[in-house]
Design brief:
The chain is α/β, with parallel strands linked by helices. Helices cover 38% and strands 22% of the residues. The strands form three sheets. Strands 6-7-8-3-9-10 form a six-stranded mixed β-sheet, with helices on both faces. A four-stranded antiparallel β-sheet has the order 2-1-4-5, with helices on both faces. A hairpin with a 2-residue loop joins strand 12 (312-317) and strand 13 (320-326). Helix 5 packs across helix 6 (139-152), helix 5 packs parallel to helix 7 and helix 6 packs across helix 7. The longest helix has 18 residues, at 198-215.
C-alpha cells in the first residue's frame, strides 16, 4: 500500500476564547451541545484521523454543521487548528512558516470554492491565468496555459468575457480551469457544485471525472449530497458533529452503514445505479451466465443477465474470472436496507 498523500492526525478545532483548555473536555467525552451550553465554545472538529491516498477522489460529506468545510480549510491552513497535524507528503502543513505556506498554496494545493471566487473585474482568461501570475510565470506562457485549460473545460470563445456575463455553471468551469492551470498536485473542492442546477451539476461532475481519468490528481471534495459522493468518490468519509462516523469505499458504506445516521443518508438512493456487481460477488459453481466486468453497476448487470436468460453472471476483472453472482444475490443487495444497530448481519 502506497503512503498517503495527505495524512490528518488527531486534529481538533474548537472555536472560542480558550480553545486549548476545552480539548481535554472533548477527550473526556463532552458533546458539542454541552460544550456550547456550558462553556460557550463551539466544537468544530473532534479528533479527525484520515489517510487520503494519492491520485484518488476523497469525498468528505455530512449535514450542515458537521465540520466538513472546517476540515478542508485546515488542509491549506485557511483555518488554524487547535491541536493536531496535517501531513502532505510527510510535511506538516500546520508547522509551515509563512513563506513555505505561501509556496504550498501557490504550487501544491489549489482550491475551488462554492461561490466561484472569481475576480469580477478580470476577464475569463485573466482569472484562469491569475494563479500562474502569482507563481511568477511569464505573461505569454501564463496566457497560453490559461487558454489551453479554458478550452479543456469547454469555454473556448469566452476568454474575453467577464464573470457577470457567464452562467453559474460557466463561472464554476472558470474556477476549475484556474485551479488546474497551476498544475497543483492537490485540488481542494469545497461544495464546488452545490450552487448549480442539477443538470449543470451533473455536467460538472462529468468534466471532473473526465479530467481525473487523465490527470490523476489528489482531490478532496466536500459535499452534502450522497448521490454526488457516490458518483465521484473513490473513498467517502461521513462526518457528524465534527467527528468521523464512517469512512470507506462507496460500496461498503451503501451495503453496511455503521449506524442509523449513515443509514438515513443512504435510504433513498437507487442502489441499482450505485452498487457494483463486485460488491455482491460470491464463488458459487452452480451459477452460469454471461461474463460481466466487476465494476458494472447492478442495474446494467441485471439487464445483461436477463437478456441472456441466465441464472446469474460470471464476474471478471481484466479478463480473468474473480467470482460469480446470482440474480437473487443482486436483488437482495438492491432491496436490503441495513443498519448496524439492527438484527440482520451485514450482507456479503
Amino acid at each position: 500500500m502506497s503512503e498517503p498523500k495527505v495524512a490528518i492526525q488527531n486534529l481538533y478545532k474548537i472555536f472560542g476564547p480558550k480553545p486549548e483548555k476545552m480539548v481535554e473536555k472533548v477527550q473526556a467525552g463532552m458533546s458539542k451541545a454541552d460544550m456550547l451550553d456550558q462553556h460557550g465554545h463551539v466544537l468544530g472538529l473532534n479528533n479527525i484521523n484520515m489517510d487520503i491516498a494519492p491520485h484518488e477522489i476523497q469525498v468528505i460529506m455530512g449535514l450542515s454543521g458537521s465540520g466538513k468545510s472546517t476540515l478542508i480549510r485546515h488542509l491549506n491552513r485557511l483555518i488554524e487548528p487547535t491541536v493536531g497535524k496535517v501531513l502532505v507528503d510527510g510535511e506538516n502543513v500546520l508547522a509551515m512558516n509563512e513563506t513555505t505556506l505561501r509556496n504550498f498554496r501557490r504550487s501544491k494545493a489549489s482550491m475551488v470554492f462554492q461561490k466561484f471566487g472569481l475576480l469580477p473585474h478580470r476577464s475569463v482568461a485573466d482569472n484562469v491565468a491569475y494563479g500562474l501570475s502569482i507563481q511568477g510565470v511569464e505573461k505569454a506562457e501564463s496566457f497560453e496555459r490559461a487558454h489551453r485549460w479554458i478550452e479543456r473545460v469547454g469555454l473556448a470563445g469566452f476568454e474575453k468575457h467577464f464573470p457577470t456575463q457567464l452562467s453559474g455553471g460557466m463561472q464554476q468551469r472558470v474556477g476549475l480551469a484556474r485551479a488546474l492551470a497551476t498544475d497543483a498536485e492537490i485540488l481542494l473542492m469545497d461544495e464546488a457544485f452545490s450552487a448549480l442546477d442539477p443538470l449543470i451539476r451533473s455536467d460538472m461532475q462529468d468534466i471532473l471525472l473526465g479530467l481525473q481519468d487523465e490527470l490523476h490528481k489528489t482531490i478532496i471534495f466536500i459535499t452534502h449530497d450522497l448521490d454526488e459522493a457516490l458518483r465521484i468518490g473513490d473513498n467517502i468519509t461521513i462526518l457528524r458533529d465534527g467527528a468521523v462516523i464512517q469512512s470507506g469505499l462507496p460500496q461498503d458504506i451503501v451495503l453496511s452503514p455503521v449506524d442509523d445516521y449513515v443509514a438515513d443518508f443512504i435510504k433513498d438512493i437507487n442502489k441499482a445505479r450505485v452498487l457494483q456487481i463486485g460488491a455482491v460477488m460470491g464463488n458459487s459453481q452452480s451459477v452460469k451466465g454471461p461474463e460481466i466486468e466487476r465494476t458494472t453497476v447492478l442495474e446494467t448487470a441485471l439487464q445483461i443477465v436477463s437478456e441472456a436468460s441466465a441464472s446469474g453472471a460470471i464476474i471478471v476483472e481484466k479478463g480473468k474470472k474473480v467470482g460469480t453472482a446470482s440474480i437473487n444475490d443482486m436483488i437482495k443487495a438492491i432491496a436490503r436496507t441495513e443498519k448496524k444497530s439492527g438484527t440482520d448481519a451485514p450482507y456479503r
